[in-house]
Amino acid sequence: MALVNFKEMLQDASNGKYAVGMFDVSDLEMIRAVVEEAEALRSPVILGALGPDLEGVRLDYWFAMAKLAAEKAAVPVCIHLDHANTLEQVQRAVKAGFSSVMLDASASPFEENIRRSGEVTGAVSKLGISVEAELGHVGNGWVGSGEGSESGPDMLTEPDKVAEFVERTGVDALAVSIGTAHGVYVKAPKLDIERLDMIKAVSDIPLVLHGGSGTPEDQMSCAIAHGICKVNIYSELLTAWNTAMLEELKKLPHMAAWPAVLRKVPDAAMREVIRQKIKFFGSAGHGNI
Ligand SMILES: [Zn+2]
Questions:
Q1: How many distinct structural domains can be found in the chain?
Q2: What's the 145 CA to ligand 1 centre distance in angstroms?
Q3: How far apart are CA 202 and CA 199, in angstroms?
Q4: Ligand 1: centre distance to CA 29 (Å)
Q5: Which helix (H) or strand (E) holds 112?
Q6: For 140-188, how does the pLDDT look when each residue is reduced to its tens digit (9 = 90+)?
Q7: Which of 82, 104, 172, 192 is labelled catalytic?
Q8: pTM, to two decimals
Q9: What is the C-alpha to C-alpha distance for residues 26 and 33, in angstroms, rounded to an integer?
Q10: Is residue 157 part of a domain?
Q11: Is residue 276 part of a domain?
Q12: What is the CATH number of the domain that holds 49?
């Protein structure tokens, strides 16, 4: 049983000055890839779920697979709901068995964000569920739509609002906007590390970086050294897998290929990205249970 508490996992990362990777996973092979590569590197890891993969009856299938993988894992694993927009979505996930959730009210004004994030902690914290919220807004909050977007200056997290937000909402982790964006970058981002330092100076809360895919390594390592302890990755898994699959499809003499065979090379390409990220985040070797 390697399902562990999200808050403690991030606190350990914060104390150890490394980041835990949260990989959004959409199917069984993605779930297996993340957990098995984390095991090979003795790393804690977070399986993330996005709305479209949980629609209707998909939630039950998705969670059953993730839970089985987490329970069999020889490293700590969290199962996290990524980017919930409503309390109803949170409650549905909690009922299924998720142990941590992110409520994203970051596009709302400050007071509204506090109200909605606080509503979630009020409903689920007493059940032992950890809550991540977002202050400031990481641009274009849906995967694949990031093309041409970036987080503008007015969307960045304002350090002087952090302590009040954390205090009034009671959240366990905070996603901050310091220059990353969701999706695929068309030009390299420039992270505002000074802003990150100011945020870190006013609160001990574990800090999360969304839009990790495609962020240049030097900037990512700097952000981790300055306090980021969870990094979200999805788009890079998709681009690696889809690019490899396109090549595999071109090689086929006919289209009646067996899925389990056809996806071997794409799965290997995706696993390589997972390995690289885990090593780069510094969490390898921190997964003893
Ligand atoms: Zn995100």
A1: 1
A2: 12
A3: 6
A4: 21
A5: helix 110-124
A6: 644 344 444 445 556 999 999 999 999 999 999 999 999 999 988 888 8
A7: 82
A8: 0.94
A9: 11
A10: yes
A11: yes
A12: 3.20.20.70
